[in-house]
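>> received
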Amino acid sequence: MQQGNILSTDVLQAMDHRYDVFNGSKKADPDLVKQGLYTPLCVTGKKVVWGYPILETAPGLGVAELQCVAIPDSTAEDELKWALKLENRTGKYSFKEKEKIVSLLSPGIDSSYHGLVRMIEGRDDPGFFDRINRYSHFSMTLKKAVNQGIVDYKTASETSDLPEACINRLFTPGCLESFSFSNRRIFLVQYYEVVRRDKLDCEKALDVLEDILKSESPLENLSGMRFPLLTASRRQFDTFKEKYLPSAGIRLTPPDYFEGDHFSVSFSFYSKKSLARKISKLKNIEEHSDELFDIL
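>> returned
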C-alpha cells in the first residue's frame, strides 16, 4: 500500500463510487473527523474503495480535505478485499450488501472467489453465490423484509413465488407484526402451500389471505385450511375429551399427528379412593372407545 495523500472532498465526491456497497457501516464520529482522527480513506485511480461514511460527514462539518491512502489499480476482487478488511464486519453483512458486492465481480468464475467469500461470511460457503443469485430475484418488498429481519432468507426463498401483490400485503406494516418470528415463518409457508395446492390466482389468493387475517385466530384458521384432516381429527378428539373426561384429571394423548394406532393415558392419585375414581373414568373411556379409535 502506498503512502497517504490529502485530497479535497470535492475531488473525492467526483470520483467513482462503485464500492459504496456497505449500508451497515459504523457512522463517522463528527468530533474525530474534525480532528483528523480517523482511518484514512482508501482510493485507487479514480475510485474511492472505502471510507464513505467519513466522506459523507466531512462537508457538513466544514472539512474540505481528507486523509487518503492510495493503492495500485487492481481487479475488483482485490479492491473489494481491501474494502472488506477496512470495513471489518466479517459474518455481519446484510443480503443487500452481499448482493452489491457480488454485482461488482465478473460472472461465471464463482469458484475463484473463495478468499473473498471467507472475508464476507467468516467461513467457506459453497452455496454463497447461488444464495445471493436467488435473493437477487426476490421482489423489493421481500428483499426489504429479509434485510430488516422480519423473515429469514430460507422462508423468503421458499415462498418467493407467491404473487407479488400477496407478498406486498403480507409485509404491509401491521400485518404479521403481532406474530412471533417462528409463527410468522409457519404462517408464510402454510399460506404458500395453500396457494400452490389450490392453484389460486392472484385475486383469489388475496381474497383468501384477507379472510384469514380477519379471523379471530389467523394462524389456527390457516392451519385448518392447510391440514384439514389433521384439524378435523383434533376437533373430534377435543370433543371426545370434553364429553367423557371433563375435569377428570386424566391426560389422554393421541399418537403424533393422529398417525398411529394407540393412545396413551397418564394420571396421578393420592389415595385408594382417588385411584378408584380415576379407574371409573377410564372405564367410561373404554365404553366409548369405538368413538375414540374412529378418529384415527
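>> Residues 229-293 form one domain.
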